[in-house]
Amino acid sequence: MPRRFAFIVAVVLSVISLSTSAAGAAPAVIGGEKASLAQHPYAVYLVDSHGTQFCGGVIVSRTAVATAAHCAATVPIGELSVVAGREDKRSQDGVVRAVSAAWQHPDFRTPQQGSDVAVLTVRGSLPYRPAGLARDPNRYPAGTTATVLGWGRLADGGDRSDYLRQATVPLADDSTCHTAYPEYSATSMLCAGYPNGGIDACKGDSGGPLVVGDTVVGIVSYGDGCGKPGKPGMYTRVTSFADDIAAHAGLS
Fold first, then answer.
1. In the chain, what are the domain boundaries?
2. What 3-state DSSP class applies to 243?
């Protein structure tokens, strides 16, 4: 099912062997943390006509935002807006821009079938630094550390975050992705996460960026729950769609 994702915080028990041969368990909290728009000014979220946040996105030009196609298809264009420059959803910081046009990849059917990418054109401008688009697939091998950003749920079935959050996850190899999701296509998808889970994106984060530095390598697409062992998060592979995104964002 589509993942309108948020970062989860999982609590795990680590067994510690003491020098006296006694053993004890110590709790360790893993998962996301608050993020700063000073570092990631291109992170945005999408709202409906009631101002309710339902997906994320990423600024790719002064007038355009990349997101997931299943996000763009959720709300009619006339009821869709982009909120930029606002870390805390309860504040009035930043700008709200109505969407004037939306391009969805023509091959998109469902997130599980790939091509889950869209570009939203806004009325007015977005006065924040855009993110770059990954173009060279060989530059981001398995094991590369990436950062996923969003305002979605803090746990599977939990509340959505009021603040922008971030989590660090490694890109997984194609074999791992295919084992977790038999429908996986290395052409249009990538996956990221730890084998034991615990750090992930969750509902409400779909459409948000997975970045290496300030370059978007993935767009949050879907997954099986949030942070489950053996179930990394699934993302649209930006290197496969960078030319399409650039063309519809007015970059080429």
1. 1-252
2. helix
248 is catalytic: no
**Does the annotation count 116 as an active-site position?**
yes
Non-local CB neighbours of 27 within 8 Å, separated by 6+ positions: 11, 12, 13, 14
Tell me yes or no: is domain 1-252 CATH 3.20.20.60: no
The question of whether 36 is a catalytic residue gets the answer no
DSSP 174-238: HHHHHHH-TT--TTTEEEE--TT------BT-TT-EEEETTEEEEEEEE-SSSS-TT--EEEEEG
- Each residue's pLDDT tens digit, 122-170: 999 999 999 999 999 999 999 999 999 999 877 677 777 889 999 999 9
Q: Give the single-character DSSP code of 27.
A: E
pTM above 0.90, yes or no: no
What pLDDT does residue 181 have? 97
Q: Which of 61, 81, 115, 206 is catalytic?
A: 206
Rounded to 5 degrees, what are φ and ψ at 177? Answer: -65, -40
Q: Which residue is catalytic, options 40, 81, 105, 116?
A: 116
Instruction: Kindly state the DSSP code that residue 252 receives in the 8-state scheme.
Output: -
Predicted pLDDT of residue 160: 79
Task: Note the pLDDT tens digit of each residue in 182-238.
Answer: 999 999 999 999 999 988 888 889 999 999 999 999 999 999 988 899 999 999 999
| CA 195/CA 225 separation, integer angstroms | 14
Q: Which residue has the tokens 């173009």?
A: 135
Q: Given the residues 40, 70, 105, 248, select the one marked as catalytic.
A: 70
- Give tens-digit pLDDT for 90-115: 999 999 999 999 999 999 999 999 99
